[in-house]
Amino acid sequence: MKRAAVFAAVVAILLAACGGGGGKKTAASGSTTSSVESSTTVAGASTTVAGGATATTKTTLKGTTGAAPKVNGQPANNYTPPAGATPAKPAAAGRYTYDNSGTSSFGAPPATSSLIVDPPQGTQQHSTNDGGSSGKTETTLDYKPEGVHLVEIKVSAAGRTYDFVGNPPNPLAAPTGVKPGQSVDFTLSDAASNTTIQVHIDFVRTETITIGGQPVDTLVIHQVGTLSGGLTGTQTMDAWVSQQYDLFVKTHSTGDVKSGPIEAKSDVTSTLEKLTPS
User: Fold this and answer.
1) Does residue 88 fall inside a structural domain?
2) Stronger pLDDT, 42 or 63, i.e. the higher one
3) Which of 30, 59, 259, 266 is the most buried (most CB within 10 A)?
């Protein structure tokens, strides 16, 4: 398991809730990153990470702290990778294309969408899932010896931006050496909408599937995200994650999310066209 398992999850959650997919609402865009080292964040502050990259910190929900991140039911900060496990490395930079199918309350998803992976900056890497009129999601990950930490997920859709960071910050989302039968738990929060997502991920099994005519060894994960606050509901995702190319090669997400009086349901499958970027 190489990339943070929540990469595609909030895309499904929030674009469905906000009318992504070409319905009556449209998307906006934006870009920020946040510091992995920050335990208390202040809007507009900045720090320097490894390699000289500057990272801007984000404001978390005031007066609230989510449950401490866990790996296999134990505190994540106590996690020690198994002997001989190799830490993940950032993905190859470039543009990847996904074929999409399914339904949502506001129309079908776009036939294709792009994943643009930027070159790493120090230990961090930023990527953008661009669904065109369906919205845009930006993810920043931090690659550490103990595993991949989730720094930020920023979703722009329906003329609004949701900026999710860990609460507490920078949870360990993909432990080094993780195996089927193991799990992680952490909390994400967006201060502006007062929305919290409780994330539980099970690492289920290994499976070989075919992508672009090529067999790919994957680790299958099952994720459940429970939303509360400004957005409420539940999202589930099954994802096939390449163990060699550091990519989500296939995902199947379902969501049932409410934003005020608006309820949105979605059921979307996305499959990578080929393993190498353009």
Assistant:
1) yes
2) 63
3) 266
State the residue range of the domain holding 133: 9-272
Instruction: Kindly state the average pLDDT of the residues 205-220.
Output: 95
**Total domains in the fold of the chain:** 1
Task: Determine the Cα–Cα distance for residues 235 and 267; give it in Å rounded to an integer.
Answer: 10
Query: Does residue 4 fall inside a structural domain?
Result: no
For 45, residues 6+ apart whose C-beta sits below 8 A from its C-beta are: 35, 38, 56, 57
Phi, psi of 10 (to 5 degrees): -70, -25
Please state the rounded mean pLDDT for residues 249-254. Answer: 92
Looking at the domain assignment, is residue 178 inside a domain? yes
Decide if 277 is inside a domain. no
Report whether pLDDT(215) > 90.
yes
List helix spans (H) across 4-43. 9-17
What's the CA gap between 82 and 254, in Å, rounded? Answer: 33
Cα separation, 221 vs 201, whole angstroms: 7
